[in-house]
User: What shape does this take?
Amino acid sequence: MKRLVASIGFVILAGSAALAVVLGPSPTSAPSAVATAITEAALAGPFGLAEMSKESIECIDCHKKESRGLYQMWGASKHYGANVGCYECHVAERDDSDALEHYDETISIIVSPKDCARCHEKEAEEFLGSHHSKAARILGSLDNVLGEVVEGNKAFVTDGFPDGNSAAAVNGCWQCHGSQVKVLPGGQLDPATWPNTGIGRLNPDGTEGSCSACHSRHAFTVEQARHPDNCGKCHLGPDHPQKEIYEESKHGIAFFSNVDRMNLDSPKWVVGEDYWLAPTCATCHVSETKNQPITHDIGMRISWNNRPPLSVRPEVSDAKMNLPGANVPWQIRRQNMYDVCLNCHNETWIDNFYLQYDALVTLYNDKFGGPAKDLYGLAKPLRDVPVNFANHIDWYYWELWHHEGRRARHGASMMGPDYTHWHGTYHIAENFYMKFVPELRDLIEKGSHSSDADKVAAAEALQAKLDEVLNSENHRWYLGKMDPEEQARRKKAAEDFKARYGH
Ligand code: HEC
Ligand code: HEC
Ligand code: HEC
Ligand code: HEC
Ligand code: HEC
Ligand code: HEC
Ligand code: HEC
Ligand code: HEC
Assistant: This one.
């Protein structure tokens, strides 16, 4: 990008900015003088151009005829106002892997985080250090077998993929998580991998992620980025229904009834100062408070990662992905979120909310998540076919943690009682007692009558674990073995309740 920099005189912010932790001590080190200077420069904002470049004027002259809507969107944008034209974003060097010769100029179709970083260094750095930018690393995960094999086949053949891809993965997983964009000879992009604005897209220039996952082109408005629907492209559905949870929560209700009073297009958008009627996803996870700047690392305000079979602390999952957040303990992140809530609630309210939420996470982990994980591990050698998703038990276990278990935890984390209970713990219990455990019993039955000594031994081990789990305090009711004292206590409470409220 040196040529561009020289020709229009950008200020490039070198070096690495301090971690996006604003409350509590910095776990790495005190910000150095360099980092402070960077922060100040970043806070001063990106730099516009004195006038539209001659290259951009050429693009515009033609594209305002060729693609009128695109031109209008750009023309109404802040970028237009700052003379940031087509060329400033789409420019490429001849030797860039995705360079495209286009009417006397070298451009690239993809505008990667590295391209935006020329003017938005701070945002890009935070984003690149976040889980969002790593979202395409799932391409090797267990769910991926679902998209590629179980649900799909390899019949979608393109120039770049003579062996084909699964249309289910291309149109599904990849559109949220990101594809590995493949460049064809001449600079065109392979149709299996483009169009794609998945949030962790693997770009030809080696960067991960796409800013256009949240910042729709060519308007790039913050107004749209702050709206909950923006996150709702991906954060919805059976395994992570954050959008639905938000909609049923008091926060969502307050937002939708006050959307015109939310001041969403205000350049400065500080909760409690520029709006106060409701928080959006961005308010809690991204936007400014009077104590915290905007963060593009959406992990900096959450204290649990509820995606794995058992909830873990975010620094644990960050370490696995080699993210800078590995050095940021959950207590600091919780304090960051706490600072958001404090603008509208008092301390006791927030403390008690976290006690309720933590209790639900612990309930799930201890009663279902942990035991189910152990039992499934022991059941694996007893399956008819030793392949994931070819047996009932695989699906029961998968849905228990990946769908139902996540819904319950996510519901509690964002004040959605229906997702916590009816879509959550209710389904977990139904699955565990009515599908998972009966299936384990079938596998034990078959295994114990097998001629294979290994299977007989595996059946014994599974039986022993199942007995231990079902006879534990959490599950003995299911065997009709509830502690008589507790039974009596429950009976008396029910009678007292009847006496007090009638019926
Ligand atoms: C003389 C007309 C003309 C000029 C000048 C021009 N373009 Fe285009 N551009 C087109 C047309 C026509 C297409 C559509 C090609 C198609 O549909 O595949 C296009 C397509 C594109 C694409 C998409 C390419 C793809 O294959 O998906 C990008 C990005 C683009 N132009 C950017 C630019 C930029 C940036 C400039 C200025 C440096 C520019 N264009 C200058 C006419 C022009
Ligand atoms: C602020 C940066 C920015 C500016 C300014 C900009 N673009 Fe883009 N453009 C993008 C991004 C981002 C994408 C989507 C590619 C991606 O996801 O990486 C894109 C995609 C495109 C595409 C292909 C996708 C489509 O929807 O067909 C065309 C064509 C295009 N731009 C043309 C233009 C033209 C013409 C201009 C000037 C009028 C322009 N761009 C100005 C960032 C920019
Ligand atoms: C050549 C420099 C430059 C590049 C490259 C650039 N921007 Fe910008 N961007 C600016 C400037 C300057 C502003 C501030 C305009 C203002 O505040 O009036 C801005 C503002 C923004 C805003 C705030 C808009 C609002 O409504 O307040 C967003 C979001 C944004 N850019 C996203 C992007 C993304 C995403 C990319 C890459 C696809 C990108 N920009 C590439 C210079 C750039
Ligand atoms: C509608 C968009 C969408 C689709 C389609 C989608 N995902 Fe996801 N996926 C997400 C979101 C959002 C999360 C994060 C959820 C959260 O934070 O609670 C996620 C999380 C994951 C995770 C866990 C990552 C971690 O850090 O623990 C894996 C693995 C995964 N998805 C794989 C897949 C695969 C494979 C497919 C296709 C078979 C797929 N997803 C389809 C949006 C999607
Ligand atoms: C997960 C969604 C998401 C992604 C991905 C994302 N942003 Fe943002 N961005 C936001 C939100 C939300 C705001 C509005 C924050 C506010 O003003 O309250 C924002 C604001 C901005 C702003 C203007 C506000 C400011 O002064 O910081 C810029 C510039 C920006 N983003 C650039 C980028 C760039 C560059 C990338 C890619 C490296 C990117 N964003 C990726 C959600 C996102
Ligand atoms: C294009 C899809 C997409 C959009 C849009 C999107 N996300 Fe995500 N988000 C994901 C995926 C996928 C993950 C899981 C990434 C992983 O860990 O592999 C994720 C993870 C997260 C996490 C967990 C981060 C962590 O550190 O564990 C939070 C919080 C989050 N997103 C919030 C948001 C918010 C708020 C918005 C809107 C401003 C948003 N997301 C927009 C796809 C998306
Ligand atoms: C009132 C503030 C608030 C709002 C509004 C809000 N969230 Fe959250 N969000 C939270 C809290 C609190 C947690 C749990 C944090 C923790 O674990 O400590 C959370 C957790 C998350 C997670 C992490 C899930 C995981 O896998 O562990 C994601 C993703 C997320 N929110 C996305 C969203 C999206 C998308 C929206 C809007 C549709 C949204 N949030 C609205 C406060 C909020
Ligand atoms: C912009 C203001 C605002 C912010 C920020 C905010 N809330 Fe709220 N919250 C509200 C409003 C308004 C209500 C609805 C109050 C009512 O029903 O009387 C509410 C209700 C609640 C409720 C009650 C839910 C119910 O169903 O009764 C809880 C719990 C809660 N908030 C927790 C939090 C937590 C935790 C945070 C920070 C992660 C937070 N809030 C951030 C405005 C906010």
